Amino acid sequence: MSKFRSMEKGFSLHTPRTIMRMLTVQDAEDFYRLNLNPEVLQYTGDHPFVDIQEAADFLAQYDQYERHGVGRFAVIEKASNAFIGWCGLRYCQTKKEYDIGFRFFQAYWNQGFATETAKKCLEDGFNRLQIDSILGRAMIKNIASIKVLEKLGMQFKEKFDFEGQEGVIYEWFRRR
Length: 176
Fold this sequence. Notes:
Helix content: 25-40%
Strand order of the largest sheet: 1-2-3-4-5-6-8-7
Distance between the termini: 23 Å
Radius of gyration: 15 Å
Structural class: alpha+beta
Number of helices: 6
Strand content: 25-35%
């Protein structure tokens, strides 16, 4: 069980170019559109939502903030005030571990947003929450995500089966 119970409403993280805030049901249309692009989902193992209502239902039931004090955040670009993707930590209760994840609209790839926001989420996990270890997972074919994990300073840990594909796990430990 996670040692952190709840994240207060209105919690946000800021980077030079983004604001990261808790996802809400009002993000359903953007969340739905993000998962429509097969190239965005290619290496995730996820499937697109059937419709906006399914995305809204997912967001309405999303309980990581309340249960574990972490979660995936809506990433808002400061310059345009646009929802450009999501990034954040997740706690897996069955494995008793935290992982970092990120997903962005294709128009925002290769601009450093994943690295910038993931770095801020890792810092929050290690500093505010005192998490000892955070994992990053990627399909081995997902070179871009692996590069992000390496830029973050994460170290290769092991290979694993990622939805029937070869995957890799990277890990970063809190510096004491």
